[in-house]
Amino acid sequence: MADNDFDDGTKPSAQADAAAMNAALGASGASEEAREYLRKQSRLADLQIENLQKLDAFENSHLRWRRFNDQMKGAMQIMLVAIGALIVAGIGAAVWSAAHDGGVVIEAFNVPPDMQSRGLTGSVVSSMLLDRLTALQSQIDSARAASSYASQGNDIKVQIPDTGISIGDAYRYLAGWLGHETHISGDVYRTPKGITVIVRTSGNPGSSFSGGEDGLSTLMDRAAEAVYRQTQPFRYAVHLLNNGRFAETDAVLRDLVANGPASEKPWAYAVWMYPALSKGDLATAISRARTAALLDPHNLLAQVNVAQIEAIAGHDEEELRSDYAAQKASAAGGGDQIRPLALVSMELTTDANVAEETGDYAAAAAIYQKQLDTPDFNGSLWTAVYMKSANLAHAHDVTASRRALGGYTDLGLMARSNTGSGWNQTNRDFPQFEQFAALGDWFAARKDIEQVAASRFGRSSTLQPGVSVFPRVALARAKTGDFKAAWTEIGRTSVDCYLCLRVRGQIAAMQKDWSASSRWFARAVALAPSIPFAYDEWGAMLMAKGDLDGAIAKFDAANQKGPRFADPLEMWGEVLIAKNRSDLALAKFEEADKYAPNWGRLYLKWGEALWWSGDKAGAAKQFAVASRLGLANSEKSELARMEPMAK
């Protein structure tokens, strides 16, 4: 029992109230009836209190339930609002998608009843057209990403409503109402000579093709090409280009440039250079490529193609400028418009071009090795083999160059490619010729390059004979003492060609016509002030003339234009030996070694500088390295004379 409970079980408050009431009644002398009434009232009050307590508990419970119920209603309302918002968003997305739908809807063709009875229904003929369009699309190896096309956006979408190949009637209605779908319809009917197929696309007149009934498949091929030309003109032009149909390519791109949307014009101009190039119209090809780059500086394909056409013209300065522009375009997001596989090839080729034009041949060879580690895109692997070998030869590593070439000759590898060169071989070169040249074997070099010049590859206008083949033929003839033939050959080339001017300067230097040689080199430097090669060859001429200080100035300039170009550093060291400053020459040889570590002549002259500096042990070490590397016959004789002196 609790401490505050009484023995009779009543609560203290109740007993206190009863006592107080009894005391009040006794004090007032109230009657028994009055007392009884008061007792009843007291009990009634107790009952009311008890009732109120129960009611309070019930009300509290009810309020809690109402609160929960209100919360559930609120949550339900929020869910309904969210569902409604999702429905509205879904409808909005469907409307937006439909408004931007640029797909191709092929409707069932009208065909003669007897053909239908044999199973060639309108839907079957439409499906044949679909198959042709799909096959045509898969054959086009364009660098351009599908998402960059203005006309159809992503890859062509083909729907045949009669066969249920669709995404719903409601969406189809929206797309037809709000979007830009291209509807294709057609007819097949009999003629006295067979059948005629007519195909129509939205907003275009129908195209008609006739032939025998057994030639329906061929007629559908022609119909598919007509549809593709009208719906995908750029891709169709690439298809024609890839199949050597240059006249048709020219017509399609001319129309696209004149009548297509502004977003398509840079792309059209970028490839429009090829039909002109196929006819030998280099000026028009250059103009079209430059226009593409001007219309859209961030168009990577345009910048890459400008670099290529400038290289074909022998405009090295403009090529290098375009290569830098291509790198900038790629960094600015221009690569988003290029297929991933093509983008890899474009970026690597552009980086290699920059390395080649600045004399960083080791870096160029390494870049082409990266290309060899990626899948092929339109001849990129062939180009990588070829150009890696050429760059190693320029870096005076003849052994590695031959290993990279894989036993092929220049002409043999070109024949193997079936195209002469990959589309992305910008700085066209000849690895085997460069190998012979690096070893001073000019009779072999002449034979090699004259064979190339006489081949169909050497005669092709698209393969730069005027700026790549002819100058090398002229140089080889001069190196073998046939100066008359050399001048005849170089006379076939343009004077706005950088290599052609340089070869003129070299031929004049071999004849000790120092004044004429300087004039040609000066013109080459003016034509391409950012390229190091003319400075380097000019320095070699001045060195042969005996103007050692003048030679150093040119080698210094060449080094500034191409700091990773080993040749001017090595010859600078030779000039310092001639000036009795072998101590200073050592630093030049050491620097050159970073960029041409397998150059036999470099170690030969390095050893000579050490010998003149009094370091016979160091000289013997460098002579030993030189003996293991490729040397010209004259260099082997010099080594044989120097080695005993270092012992």
Could you please describe the fold and organization of this structure?
- By secondary structure, the protein is mostly helical.
- The chain has a domain at 104-231: Rossmann fold (3-Layer(aba) Sandwich).
- It has helices at residues 12-28, 32-99, 113-117, 122-139, 169-178, 216-231, 233-242, 246-259, 265-278, 282-295, 300-313, 316-331, 340-357, 361-372, 380-394, 398-405, 410-417, 431-438, 442-454, 456-459, 465-479, 483-490, 498-510, 514-527, 533-545, 548-561, 566-578, 582-593, 600-612, 616-627, 633-642, and strands at 104-106, 158-159, 182-191, 194-201, 207-211.
- It has a 5-stranded mixed β-sheet with strand order 2-1-3-4-5, with helices on one face.
- A hairpin with a 5-residue loop joins strand 4 and strand 5.
- Helix 8 packs antiparallel against helix 9 and helix 10 runs antiparallel to helix 11.
- The protein is flat and about 155 Å long.
Walk me through the topology.
Layout: H1 12-28, H2 32-99, E1 104-106, H3 113-117, H4 122-139, E2 158-159, H5 169-178, E3 182-191, E4 194-201, E5 207-211, H6 216-231, H7 233-242, H8 246-259, H9 265-278, H10 282-295, H11 300-313, H12 316-331, H13 340-357, H14 361-372, H15 380-394, H16 398-405, H17 410-417, H18 431-438, H19 442-454, H20 456-459, H21 465-479, H22 483-490, H23 498-510, H24 514-527, H25 533-545, H26 548-561, H27 566-578, H28 582-593, H29 600-612, H30 616-627, H31 633-642
Parallel strand pairs: 1-2, 1-3
Antiparallel strand pairs: 3-4, 4-5
Helix pairs in contact: 1-2, 2-5, 4-6, 6-7, 7-8, 8-9, 9-10, 9-11, 10-11, 11-12, 12-13, 13-14, 14-15, 15-16, 15-18, 16-18, 18-19, 19-21, 21-22, 21-23, 22-23, 23-24, 23-25, 24-25, 25-26, 25-27, 26-27, 27-28, 27-29, 28-29, 29-30
